[in-house]
Amino acid sequence: MPLSSPVADIRRFNDDRAMSDDNLNWLTSWYVAQCNDDWEHSYGVKIDTLDNPGWTLKVDLRETNLEGRAFEKASVGEPANDLDEWKRLGSWWVAEVKGTVFEAACGPLDLGRVIGVFRSWAEQANVG
Q1: What is the mean pLDDT of residues 50-54?
Q2: Among 3, 15, 49, CA closest to 117
């Protein structure tokens, strides 16, 4: 697979550089850029915890430049059912677009990685 493909770009977030660009700060800036005194009242970004443990990220794409943009489901590793299994299996995440929502779930140390997956995809939309 060529390195310039979206999937290859997304998969690069499986390494230790995932938080080097401070993806959480980027996400907060992206959110503010969407706010227009209307969008933020109906849509938004949600980060929550999972009980296995882990995180979920949901980003509403309605009325953004990402609405309707193709996203190929991507994943790394296997989701763990509990903390002991996660300690054995290690890092995991899965990301996809369902309807008009970018949805990701990940292990307890991978939140920055899934934000990075969203970031990479969003930045590609601004280039192309």
Answers
A1: 91
A2: 15
pLDDT band at 8 (very low <50, low <70, confident <90, very high): very low
What's the angle, vertex CA 66, arms to CA 65 and CA 72, rounded to 5? Answer: 155
Domain housing 91: 6-127
Integer CA distances (angstroms), 32 to 43, 80, 126, in order? 12, 33, 16
Between CA 31 and CA 118 the distance in angstroms is 12
**pLDDT attached to residue 52:** 87
Secondary structure (3-state) at 102 = strand
In a domain, 118, yes or no: yes
Q: What is the C-alpha to C-alpha distance for residues 15 and 89, in angstroms, rounded to an integer? A: 16
How many domains is the chain built from? 1
- Predicted local confidence at residue 7, as pLDDT: 42
**How large is the average pLDDT for residues 68-88?**
93
Judge whether 1 lies within some domain: no
Amino acid at position 73, single letter: K
